[in-house]
Amino acid sequence: MLSWTCPAPLRDQPRVVMGHGGGGAMSAELVEQIFTPAFGGPGPSGLTDSAAVEIGGARLAFSTDSFVVRPLFFPGGSIGDLAVNGTVNDLAMSGARAAYLSCGFILEEGVAIDVVERVARAMGAAARTAGVEVVTGDTKVVESGHGDGVFINTSGIGLIPPGVDLRPERVVPGDVVIVSGAVGVHGVAIMSVREGLEFGVEIESDCAPLGGLVEAMLAVTPDLHVLRDPTRGGLAASLNEIASASGTGIVVQERAVPVPPPVANACAVLGLDPMYVANEGKLVAFVPRAHAEQVLAAMRAHPLGADAVMIGEVVDAHPGMVVARTALGGTRVVDLPLGEQLPRIC
């Protein structure tokens, strides 16, 4: 643990620090103050994980992501699985089924060829499972000491079905908040192998493609309001992003948030809050109350949503703020994380 680096240092740093990549407030400030002005605005879909664009009358979702996880292989997956599933899931959060991916490898001089092959094979298997094709790519090599073995960038496109409009601005008071399963699993799995920690049982990453689960939900009704996969910054970051963008308040029942005992125990030992720990195979959905029970039933009928549960609702009060009701009957504010509790988790 002596090699740990603080992921959330002071925010007035004149240089990039680890917290800028954590998916929290520092990441948002970097995007809003540097990238968005430089690129001419937030784009047609706002600042979301994927953009919805129209080409030739068709609505497409387009997304790109980079993966720098350490270690490259971990219980339940690898950087190759993350590279495919992460982009597939970003597209799915727009309601699109991913069709094609690009793949860019940045390799460090000296990395073993069999490691690169193992990563590539994992990507190929994950793509076949997700029903997508990797159709173009690029490879670069950097000098020894200027990388970390293997970095990967993937971009993807998919078609958004007619009538689907998923964005935070559609969230209204009365909407029900549903999470598709246990939270915090991926981040704890990464930490356990990175630091050689043991928690009595092996914790495996939840890395998985969510396109099929989203299709099952949209089959009930296309009138879902917004979907998010709570990766960096965990469930807390996703809820805060949606509350801020929609101008509504969110109330979460803390006891309803599904946290597996091994994850809860690991977080207790490490001093982490499971709501801020990354996931790679879960989603959070904001659903009109009239459709909530049917959508929940459809989720539970799918293997990746078998443990789905309602965890809260959208309210008029405290707009832009997320509040958790505790087991003791009190409340606490669930803030947007400053940086990231666990750096380099995706």
From TrEMBL:
Please give the InterPro entries that the UniProt record associates with this protein.
HypE, PurM-like_C_dom, PurM-like_C_sf, PurM-like_N, PurM-like_N_sf
Family matches, as Gene3D superfamilies: PurM-like C-terminal domain, PurM-like, N-terminal domain
BP GO terms, sorted: protein maturation
Pfam families referenced in this protein's UniProt entry, alphabetically: AIRS, AIRS_C
Residue ranges of every copy of the PurM-like C-terminal domain listed in the record: 173-318
PANTHER family in alphabetical order: CARBAMOYL DEHYDRATASE HYPE, HYDROGENASE ISOENZYMES FORMATION PROTEIN HYPE
Give the UniProt family note.
Belongs to the HypE family.
Protein name per UniProt: Hydrogenase expression/formation protein HypE
Q: Which organism is it from?
A: Streptomyces sporangiiformans
